[in-house]
Design a protein that fits this description.
Shape: globular
Low-confidence stretches: none
Radius of gyration: 16 Å
Number of strands: 2
Largest sheet: 2 strands, parallel
Strand content: 5-15%
Mean pLDDT: 89
Number of domains: 2
Structural class: mainly alpha
Distance between the termini: 22 Å
Number of helices: 6
Amino acid sequence: MILTPGQDGDGPLGRKLLESFEPGQIKHVLGDTAYDGDETRACVRQLKAKACIKPHKNRTTKKRYDKVRYRYRNQIERFFGRIKQFRRVATRYEKPLQNFAGFIWLAVLMVNAL
């Protein structure tokens, strides 16, 4: 988990997160159009994984993706929606990064306990 300010872009941080894995450690990478960049796709290839990233509409060369596997991304979106029901997570009352991360983990535990 990498916590960043809300104004930071998703693509570069996704690549930073992918760099923490070893080749062969993951098989698939699911991502929305925010991660549709050639740099991110190259990083996924270096990991010997398959990218399931929906391409931007304005991409000149259309990339293929597994539409059946991409449907599972909604589970991730619903999970983030559930943890944002906790007010301290949604509004980021806690300014120190360690405190905020603690409340995120607490929200995750509460969601999984339900």
